[in-house]
Amino acid sequence: MGTLFKGGTVITASETIEADVLVEGEIVTLIGRNINAKGHEVVNCKGKYLIPGGIDVHTHLDLAFGGTVANDDFNTGHRAAAFGGTTSHIDFVIQPKGGSLHDGLKAWREKAKPAQIDYGFHLAITDLRDEVMAEIPTLLDEGVTSLKLFMAYKNVFQIDDATLFKTMRTAAANGMIVMVHAENGDVEATLTPSLLAEGKTDPIYHAHSRPPEIEGEATNRAVVMAGMTGCSLYVVHMTCEPSIAALRRGRALGYPVMGESCTQYFFLTAEKHLGAPGFEGAKFVCSPPIRTVHDQGVLWGAVKDGTLQAVSTDHCNFWFEGGKGPWKEWLDKHGNKDWEKFEAKAPGNRRPGKELGKGNFAKIPNGMPGLEERMMVMWEAGVNQGRISANRFVELLCTNPAKIFGMYPKKGTISVGSDADIVVWDPKAKHTLSVKNTHMRTDYIVYEGMKVRGKPSMVFLRGKKIVDGDQWLGANGEGKFIHRKPKAPVL
Ligand code: URP
Ligand code: ZN
Ligand code: ZN
After folding, report:
1. Which of 157, 261, 314 for a ligand 1 pocket mutation test, highest count of atoms within 8 Å of Cβ?
2. Which listed residue, of 40, 355, 375, 392, carries a Cα 20 to 30 Å from 13's Cα?
3. Alpha-carbon distance 102 to 96, whole Å?
4. For 400-443, how does the pLDDT look when each residue is reduced to its tens digit (9 = 90+)?
5. Span 389-400, pLDDT tens digits
6. Which of 247, 175, 149 lies closest to 487 in space, CA to CA?
7. Which domains does the chain have, with CATH numbers?
């Protein structure tokens, strides 16, 4: 007996067809008109779209960062993702300083034990010693095909140009892809103390410490190195005109370079959100910073003309009002881990969050929530408001991420033989985004009050229904690691 999705409209990156979809076990086995329902469980999809499960290739679950640990983990983050229509994601493993890449992998495998949706890992190199360089090709045996390098966060994750160049050469030789966080961290590290010394400590000055030029410069540097080494490059969280221009130039020269932006950069501005009264702006502190309405236009243009290939979230969320309960004692005893247990101990307990940066923008943990809302907000602003087609929406949020990161066609589309990660999308459903109805572990969302039309009504992971309306049907341990393939195409 299979599951028959009957009477819906299947939307892929290339087609919109009225068809039934038969799923047997975990796989799509038949797509066609009037498939015989006998012996199958029928899901009535009349008036609904069937779209592939969303893929978010940029998340930071359970990440120790900014003096605390991000709130959502492979339990809460996964449930929230699924409620928003995302059934797979790739998280960033961080190589511990002095440790190996495999040490990082081991730690992330532990974090991922409660998985409820499918997941993969990128590996962020922070310390490229000779033996670490030799380790890079062995990651392919572990299903890890993508490396990440931070050109910013000096004295934390930042690498130097030699590391970037050497990594690219090795990645190119092994069919791997390099991802960069492109901001000139040395310039930022020079601007920040000057701003603070001038008494410019509010959240808005975080944006002043990371102007668009430093993103454009770093993007250009990485793009040029990709051209020189022939390494596939994927620039993460692109926000502004100078970096888009650098990527566009590289693509025009035939370099193997690609890029993503993240949802927040299409909606939020430094002026309104970072510059909100009091400490409110801390909610919106992320790196690179949110920019201007003009840059939002540039991003939509880049999405339309194919300069950008994907839209992710960079989900990395911290309490706005954290640091409640005996958290200092907990920190002394346990270090920066097991915060979930601390929070479960008493209703008011919270790990530290954004308040760490009151009076000093440089101490505000960088990042924001967004994993749950990505598909709804991009559908609303993209498809409903006529900026992109429903097919392009699927391409940017599902298919291209799968292709670029070696998961296609198992993931990212609805076709015979693909994993049955299917979102039954109700294009008529109206919904107001609010912290009151979010599934993320957060005390705020960045789209508070935004009205959307179109949301998942049911979500299936490899054929199993995990979301039905407001009901959660998934379970810990049901999410599987995605073993990815190298030599993915440059789009
Ligand atoms: O502010 C951000 N983006 N936080 C997460 C880490 C990163 O740089 O992606
Ligand atoms: Zn980053
Ligand atoms: Zn990130």
Report:
1. 314
2. 40
3. 10
4. 999 999 999 999 999 999 999 999 999 999 999 999 999 999 99
5. 999 999 999 999
6. 175
7. 54-318+353-375 (3.20.20.140)
